[in-house]
Amino acid sequence: MQTMWAGRFQKQLDADVNDFNSAISFDARMFRQDIAGSLAHVAMLAHAGILTDAERDVIAAGLGSILDDIASGALPIDPVAEDIHMFVEAELTKRVGDVGKKLHTARSRNDQVAIDLRLYLMDAIGKIESGAKELLKTLLDQAEAYAATIMPGYTHLQRAQPITLGHHLMAYANMIERDLCRLAACKKSAAVSPLGCCALAGTTYPTDRAMTAKALGCAFPCENSMDGVSDRDFVIELASCIAMMMMHLSRFSEEIILWCSWEFHFIELDDAYSTGSSIMPQKKNPDIPELVRGKAGRSYGNLMTLLTVMKGLPLAYNKDMQEDKEAIFDSVDTVLQCLHVFTPMLATMRVLPDNMRKAAANGFINATDCADYLVGKGLPFREAYKITGALVARCIRDGATLETLPLAVYREYSGAFDADVYEAIDLDACVMKRTSFGGTSPASVRAQIASMRERTGL
Ligand code: ARG
Q: Which of 136, 234, 243, 382 is exposed most, by the fewest CB atoms within 10 A?
């Protein structure tokens, strides 16, 4: 194995060490970004008079042909190459001759890999944003369809107060909207160019780093060349953003899994988004949400990998940083894969409003409203709370509900009760009355949907 640095060494690189050292199996996916970076660099070198225009044109044409050939499959990636940077450069020299060796003037692989990864992740963030927007749009549409569908709301997984499914779905819409905000911030962090930082100290050539930054869609060149080649904050930010997003999808998945159990039976997933059992013929399993919930774990692991890889690194570049790619690529792939199946699963699920309503009619879910009724009659809330608690205990003893308990029994507990208590604790009324800003009434839910649609344009 003849390496680029063979002149300095007496022996050839051990084949196993070459395998160990190589990043090509995972960094080849950055070939477009690597070539885009080189094209911007070579244009700048000619602009600065470091290369002639003729040299630039030959190199650019060579790079263009390599890009086309990798993309079409005509040029297979050499698995023995050390990384994508060396592969492209070696291929360029093969194609255009010695002039290809001039490309690597005033740059190093340290700034090259940093710009490649930034460009790759900028593009990946765009894809995650589109996926998240599709999910958000589906959530808004479903929330609108079920803005008045009553279901039990839970705390401690105990029936707490009646809510609407639309309200519940909009809670997730808010999480995804925050995820989108964080993704936009990540994109900004990534869009800073380290190209031209060279190995660590900058260069003696009259380069124009602002020119390459602009050509590559970055807002500006980073201000410190040592920071430029050692900064992986943007990778960690994205991994953290994805981990948080996966946490949201995982919580939602957990609820979907519960909702499709026979115990809840609030929804049914479409056949196309469910799986069967190899032995139990009756089974319809929610594998998609289970896998999404499981995959949240690996996204947390990737974040921890990245933080740990970086924690002890002295400035500037260290080969440890090559370990950043598999972790962040896995997080990107995972979240994209999850969004891809989660959104249509949600769009096609069948909601069972009758079952939701039946569940909401049990469990004394209107007890707070009963207490609020007494407050309306002038009792302090703590007193009203105590009386209602005693009434619930009585119902449990008698096998009754607050709706079926006779007025005479109500009045044993407080003279403030009148026949209008039954209207006050009616399930629909309980929901309709919660018109506070951000509350669960269909009117409040529709207001939430409208304002989010306006903010997001979805
Ligand atoms: N494959 C390397 C990485 O992913 C590229 C940079 C190599 N730089 C070096 N000085 N060996 O980090």
A: 382
